[in-house]
Amino acid sequence: MSGSSWRTATVVVICCLVQSTVVADPKWVGSAVDVLTNFGDLYLKFRVSPRNDSNPWVFYDDPSPVLKDASVKRTVFYQDKGEFRLELCDDFKALMESYFRHFFIEGVENAWKAFALSWSSAKQSSSFGIKSPRGDHGFIVLKLNVQKEKYHLQRLSNLNQSVQALFDQVSIYDTMSAIKFYQQTGTHYIHSYSTGNSLCQVLVYERQVFENLKKRIHGPVVPATNFAAMAKYLSPLYANEVGRVMVASGDLTIARWANEILRRKRSRLKTKYPSLWSVMWRPWIVEEFTSRTGPDAVVGLRLELIDRVVSADEEKKKWYHMLADNFLKLNENNA
């Protein structure tokens, strides 16, 4: 059965002070997002993976607020909040699920499909720092997520007047009027998001090696807290390919620094290789990474269907919700 497991869910927290305030400027919270129109390409709207560009945008579009008087809470992590995760992925689908673990889209079972279904082999390779693997492979994902800021909606609001007026024009059981509405306004709104940056490394294993590793890592013989033993399994001694350490923001300066500072050499190997796992016994690298980066990428996101905030009778709201949900499932299942 394909999937992924969280054998090591080690959390490295270097957060010394958290400040939460209600802000007048909601930023992108409450902004509309058209998931249906952009299904498979949402990564073009949010900086969630390395991009080959020099423009440092985080959200591609300007805010498009649809909520009235939204109450938004902003949380700032001073000295930052870092979460380190190791995940075993049975196949490439599980690898994608792992990468987009902190992304939620209401009505979409696998958020990664909405973001990255259109990725070509070249895009997959450039995003994960590996060659596009062919054949039967397993993967281990190492990811360090650093949050700088988090914005989230404190309580449900109503649509603003202009958007509500557009929804009033939707006629129940008239599919085309509903399609026209979401094309004009979007299917979802941003309920919450976190900005920061992340380091990610993917290792590729031949199937038999991967299955043996799963037994060892899950078994009592080699606990995941045995850093030295795990380091051996996360090296070219076992991995068919050790990917480059990638930076979500695509910052080439940070990427070069990370791959250089994380280079290791095992006694039986002639060449050095980068190892994100080494932050487990060198936590100062995490601190230096957080000092080098800002709120440069989206590291967490929650999108909710817009019908949650419309003013209408229950029959119309249920019908619209069912229609939007069906369209989303058709997009996902037919992909």
What does this protein look like?
This protein is α+β, with helices and mostly antiparallel strands. The chain has one domain (4-158, 189-307). 30% of the residues lie in helices and 27% in strands. It has ten helices and 14 strands. Strands 1, 2, 3, 5, 6, 7, 9, 10, 11 and 14 form a ten-stranded mixed β-sheet that branches. It has a two-stranded antiparallel sheet with strand order 4-8. It has a two-stranded antiparallel ribbon with strand order 12-13. The longest helix is centred in the last third of the chain and has 20 residues, at 314-333. 41% of the residues are buried.
Tally of individual helices:
10
Largest sheet, in brief, is: 10 strands, mixed
The number of distinct structural domains comes to 1
Structural class by secondary-structure content: alpha+beta
The run of helices and strands is EEEEEHEHHEEHHEHHEEHEEHEH
Q: Mean pLDDT, rounded to whole units?
A: 86
Report the sheet-strand fraction: 25-35%
Broad shape: globular
Task: Give the total of beta strands.
Answer: 14
Report low-confidence residues grouped into runs of 5 or more.
6-16
Give the N-terminus to C-terminus distance in angstroms.
21 Å
Ordered list of secondary-structure elements with their pairings:
Layout: E1 4-8, E2 17-23, E3 32-33, E4 67-68, E5 72-89, H1 92-99, E6 103-105, H2 111-116, H3 121-128, E7 137-153, E8 158-159, H4 161-168, H5 175-185, E9 188-206, H6 207-218, H7 227-233, E10 241-242, E11 246-247, H8 252-261, E12 263-264, E13 273-274, H9 284-292, E14 297-305, H10 314-333
Parallel strand pairs: 6-14
Antiparallel strand pairs: 1-5, 2-5, 3-9, 4-8, 5-7, 7-9, 9-10, 9-11, 9-14, 12-13
Keywords: Signal
Signal peptide: 1-24
Protein name: Torso-like protein
